[in-house]
Amino acid sequence: MSSEWPLVKNTLSRRDFVRSSALVAAACVAPSGVLALAQERPPADEASPIRLGLASYTFRNFSRMQMISFMKQFNVFALNAKDVKDHLPMEAQQETAALADYAAAGIKLQAAGAIYFAKDEDTDIRSKFEYCKRAGIGVIVAGGPTLETLLRIEKFVKEYDIRIAIHNHGPEDKLWPSPLDVLKAVKSMDPRIGCCIDVGHTVRAGTDVVEAIHEAGPRLFNVHMKDLTNFQSKESQVAVGDGIMPVRKMFEALIATKYQGFVDLEYEIHPDDPMPGVIASFAYMRGVLAGMGFASKG
Hints:
11 strands; about 20% strand; two-stranded antiparallel sheet; single chain; eight-stranded parallel β-barrel; alpha/beta
């Protein structure tokens, strides 16, 4: 889209904006009967370097098959899976059944987590690496490992060649409130140990999220996307685009640092009815990418 997009976005209501985004998306895949509508859309310059995915925690109150159905509706096929409900069970046989369902639906599991490393024990840590190896997952989003456990985890990173992305959890997190705290701790460790930037928790920790992306550089392996109306309030989460998160600037930073991972929507509110907010969030992010001259991929 042209530079007119920011003006259009600012003058439309959320409902009209989402409807407009849906019309644009429909035009891209429509048959010849609506060719005129497609031709009216300014073409995007190239495929987006930003890959959009979903954190399965968003649908924690829904079964795996329900989530798969939802993902098809909003046209996202990259999943950051969590052992919640029956999304990706830790037990091997149940995990195999889940993997078959995802493969049949064309869904790629690109990360898993958050996975918590509560025990500083080889057996416990190995079981979690095996869990991700069976699923062909290359990134473990790790919640709350202590510094001592992280040293033990490093040898499994080397053995399995699976990256660890430590998830920051804001001011309530005594170890990892900000991605900057993660980066300080891992700077001399294996380069496959880095961070998952949760953008909501990052701003609540008082960290500039755009600067954090630049600071992380090649040690950024995953992004959890959300939006807030108040950077001091965890309870102010809204659909992406309804808050004050600098989405375009974050996308620009990810592109500038040649980020290779996924931007996974983690919509934590309205757990019994998340679809309206999820659809609106993906529509907004795709609209931002279109305004940057990119055709969304995912």
